Amino acid sequence: MKTLDYAINYRGLDIYSLPIPHGEKGPKTKGWNKLRLDEPELRREFGHSPRNIGLLLGDPSGGLTDLDMDCREAVALAPEFLPRTQRKSGRQGKPYSHYWYRCQGIRSKKFEDTEGHVLVEIRSTGGQTLAPPSVHPSGESCVWHDEGEFGNVGPEALLEWTAQLAATALLARHWPAPGVAAQGGLGPLRLPDPWRSRPRAGEEGRRPRGSLRGR
User: Fold this and answer.
1) Which DSSP symbol is given to 30?
2) What burial class does residue 143 get, using C-beta atoms within 10 Å of its C-beta: 0-12 exposed, 13-18 middle, 19+ buried?
3) What does the alpha-carbon distance between residue 59 and residue 105 come to, in Å, rounded to a whole number?
4) What is the full DSSP assignment across 132-193?
5) What does the pLDDT look like over 53-88, one tens digit per residue?
6) Tens of pLDDT, residues 2-28
7) How many CB atoms lie within 10 A of CB 174?
8) Which residues pair with 17 in a beta bridge?
9) What is the rounded CA–CA span in Å between residue 76 and residue 42?
């Protein structure tokens, strides 16, 4: 499919698309966060020269929310922590690094380590995310790994599980390597059984504490 076909399909899902220069991540149009392009405008913007496409997040697009995992530990742990969704995207260098939801009312939030590096980011109203079939600045194509229904989840539950994911990713990042762990009397990091069988988002949960900053 061409980029125009994707844009029209996204609009059919109540999602607004934004034109982005080919090979770039962000829109250049002034006031892009106020753009609401329907099919005639989409044909004008995407029907000619190559373009990347961004999805307008949050309230304008029916609560569309992107869980953007910026570190490999978060990507590896996401299936254990995040609510179920049948929409996941990424690229060759970072597969399955974006989980997509419908989450009305949630605010954008970054979870960082103690050095200010982003672990996980909740992206919502006021933001946009580069979407398939765009070409990332790395030269890799953005793709849908799973292209089913967007997971529906409340803002408190999504915030809770994302905070737990970020805290555990931080712990995994600083856990000693197997050789070092053996010398220090520590075993490899494994999720205990209660985590593997834990209730999904919406159930009672306790947010872990750790060396983590959220903003």
Assistant:
1) T
2) middle
3) 7
4) TT-B-TTSPBPEEEEESPPEE--HHHHHHHHHHHHHHHHHHHHSPPHHHHHHHT-------H
5) 999 999 999 999 999 999 999 999 999 999 999 999
6) 999 999 999 999 999 999 999 999 999
7) 12
8) 55
9) 36
Cα-Cα-Cα-Cα dihedral of 168, 96, 37, 122, to 10°? 0
Structure tokens at 110: 């970054």
Output the pTM of the full model. 0.83
- Structure-block tokens of residue 145: 């790994």
Report d(CA 43, CA 35) in Å as an integer.
Answer: 15
Length of the chain: 215
Alpha helices in the chain (DSSP H): 3-12, 39-46, 72-81, 155-174, 178-184, 193-196
Spatial contact of 105 and 73, defined as CB atoms under 8 Å apart: no
Amino acid at 210: G
Rounded distance, CA 180 to CA 156, Å?
A: 38
Whether a cis peptide bond, with omega within 30° of 0, leads into 155 is: no
**pLDDT tens-digit map of 95-152:** 999 999 999 999 999 999 988 999 999 999 999 999 999 999 999 999 999 999 999 9
Look up residue 95 and give its amino acid. Answer: P
Q: Which residue has the higher pLDDT, 114 or 161?
A: 161
pLDDT at residue 114, as a whole number = 87
| Residues in Cβ contact with 73 at an 8 Å cutoff, skipping those fewer than 6 apart | 119, 168, 169, 170, 172, 173
Please answer whether residues 150 and 100 qualify as being in contact, where contact means their C-beta atoms are separated by less than 8 angstroms. Answer: yes
